[in-house]
Write a structure and sequence with these properties.
Blueprint (H helix, E strand, L loop, with lengths): L2 E10 L11 E9 L3 E5 L6 H7 L8 E6 L2 E2 L6 H7 E4 L12 H10 L5 H14 L15 H13 L5 E5 L7 H18 L2 E5 L3 H4 L4 E6 L2 E6 L1 H5 L2 H6 L6 H10 L12 H16 L1
Parallel strand pairs: 3-8, 3-9, 6-7, 7-8
Antiparallel strand pairs: 1-2, 1-4, 4-5, 9-10
The protein binds adenosine-5'-triphosphate and magnesium ion.
Length: 283
């Protein structure tokens, strides 16, 4: 597969901040091509600062960041880096640039001076991928939050990036918008093979990832498959996070019923574990 992003002892201090207290502190991280990584961590742990290193919006104070093997300090390759890694942010309103949906999605590829048919093909592909094709002639500002966010994602997809980094893409959305956006992101990863790095505060979204990274004070505190990370409920709590609801519930019950399994992740698994417990206790 190969690595999409690699950091080596990545350290970052914002200009004017004291150098002794870096926001990112010697981070070694490799993100494999085609993977879906969720990044968690309490407020101020450095998640957004890390994400901005992945398409050279910020450059390391010390250490290295490679995007598809390109060193992000290589100014001559900035365009190549930005073409490989697209960014989606929290507020969909700030990401819409044109009045009509299809014009919005066409905006970035048009700036690449592609042939007109190629731009049109990319716009259609991108809007279909996020399930917004039938809205192509709609006014962008009249869409719901979840629809706007999917249009913003389509705008990135139209650039044909290999990797997409999303910084709390669902934070401003209602539950329906959150579900729609997550579904679009998962499809990008599973059907289109695009590497996804998604920062989120929602544990149920992180459950869908292949890998969960928990940040704490500029370092990686936990890193592993969701099942393994969310089984470490005590540690998560100390880092200011809670496991997804089914896992948290079973974790609390395990104090009384230690025979419950430690690695419950989904609702279905919690139901199964509780049924087994009831059958046993009722005997
Ligand atoms: N432009 C900036 N200048 C100086 N310090 C900054 C700047 N942006 C962020 N910081 C500081 O860097 C640290 C990490 O911030 P960052 O935004 O990366 O955290 P985060 O994990 O994304 O938090 P949140 O969950 O609130 O989005 C915080 O202490 C923050 O105050
Ligand atoms: Mg942030």
């Amino acid at each position: 597969m190969g690595e999409m992003i690699q950091t080596q002892r990545l350290t970052y201090t914002y200009p004017g901040s004291p150098a002794g207290d870096p926001v990112l502190n010697r981070i070694d991280l490799t993100v494999e091509k085609g993977s879906f990584v969720a990044i968690l961590g309490h407020n101020g742990s450095g998640k957004s600062t890390l994400a901005k290193q992945f398409n050279a919006v910020l450059l390391p104070t010390d250490g290295k960041v490679y995007v598809d093997r390109i060193d992000t300090v290589d100014e001559g390759r900035l365009f190549d880096i930005r073409q490989r890694v697209g960014m989606v942010f929290q507020n969909p309103d700030n990401q819409i640039v044109a009045t009509i949906v299809e014009e919005d999605v066409a905006f970035a590829p048009e700036n690449l001076n592609l042939p007109r048919e190629e731009t049109a093909a990319r716009v259609e592909y991108a809007l279909r991928t996020v399930d917004m094709w039938e809205y192509r002639e709609h006014q962008a500002h009249q869409l719901s939050g979840g629809q706007k966010q999917r249009v913003a994602i389509a705008g990135i997809i139209a650039m044909k990036p290999r990797c997409i980094v999303l910084d709390e893409p669902t934070a401003m959305l209602d539950p329906v918008g959150r579900r729609e956006t997550l579904a679009a992101v998962m499809r990008l990863n599973r059907e289109e093979g695009i590497t996804v790095i998604m920062i989120t505060h929602y544990m149920n979204e992180a459950v869908e990832a292949d890998r969960v990274i928990v940040m704490d004070r500029g370092r990686i505190a936990m890193d592993g498959p969701p099942r393994a990370v969310f089984a470490r409920a005590g540690e998560l709590e100390r880092l200011g996070l809670e496991a997804p609801q089914p896992a948290a519930l079973i974790h609390r019950l395990r104090r009384r019923f230690p025979q419950l399994p430690a690695d419950v992740l989904t609702e279905a698994e919690a139901v199964e574990a509780l049924s087994a417990l009831l059958a046993e206790v009722g005997r």
